[in-house]
Design brief:
The protein is of the alpha/beta class. Helix content is about 25%, strand content about 25%.
């Protein structure tokens, strides 16, 4: 549960992708609404973060956005929901820049991928972020061989040196859960409405600018529902994760 000094209670969810890989399984819905145990995937994700103290969501939506907006409206289980609408595809970074227009006084905020679920202890990520005086903290997980996710190279203290995979038996992968300082976005070469990749453009820019980027490894379960194999096992995993929060 998030509490006390330095609490972070707003989360941006990047939910604008087309879901090409999942279209054969869920053809008529945007990925975040793909049903798991009779409920949309995004509900499960929001439940998990609300149980740890998040009380406001900004959904960055694009593909079939009307369905997402109609489902959640302006409130979910008493939690405020607002939207950043992409009328043309802007990429993950462009969707984030658009969503930041909806921020209020938040100096720090979470960013989550709308098609992945990573079991992260929020209070531990916040503590790590503040201890390291990070501008961006990324939740990471171990993989034995990484040909699917963005690899991340870190030093002994967690400082990120690159966002790319290296040859080797064991690697760290980006889990799609981020804690950002708002000031990190000052003086960038992009503005709201630009098509930008979070992973390829923004992260590269932050690193080359010498910003304090850190990664913390979590041992929790990770699923990517955009991959049909992960989607098929999501039911059992999400049930188990919810059970640990009750």
């Amino acid at each position: 549960m998030i509490s006390g000094r330095g609490a972070v209670t707003t989360a941006v969810i990047l939910a604008g992708g087309m879901g090409t890989r999942l279209s054969s399984v869920v053809p008529n819905l945007p990925k975040p609404l793909a049903p798991i145990n009779g409920r949309p995937f995004l509900e499960h994700q929001m439940d998990y973060w609300m149980a740890q103290g998040v009380n406001r969501f900004i959904l960055s939506v694009g593909y079939r956005r009307e369905q997402i907006m109609a489902h959640f409206g302006t409130s979910y289980q008493g939690c405020e929901v607002s939207y950043a609408e992409e009328t043309t595809p802007l990429g993950t970074g462009g969707g984030l820049l658009l969503a930041m227009e909806k921020l209020r006084e938040e100096k720090q905020f979470f960013v989550l991928n709308g098609d992945t679920f990573f079991e992260v202890e929020v209070s531990a990520l916040i503590h790590f972020h503040q201890t390291m005086e990070a501008a961006l903290s990324v939740a990471l997980f171990d993989v034995t061989a990484n040909d699917r996710y963005m690899g991340v190279q870190v030093g002994a203290n967690g400082a990120i040196s690159s966002f790319r995979s290296e040859p080797g038996a064991s690697q760290l992968a980006n889990g799609g859960v981020y804690l950002f300082n708002r000031e990190l976005f000052k003086h960038m070469p992009w503005t709201t409405g630009d098509r930008v990749s979070l992973e390829d453009d923004l992260f590269t820019h932050f690193l080359s600018s010498g910003k304090r980027l850190y990664g913390m490894v979590f041992q929790g379960r990770f699923i990517d529902i955009g991959v049909p194999a992960d989607y098929s096992r999501a039911s059992d995993i999400i049930d188990h994760i919810h059970g640990t929060l009750r």
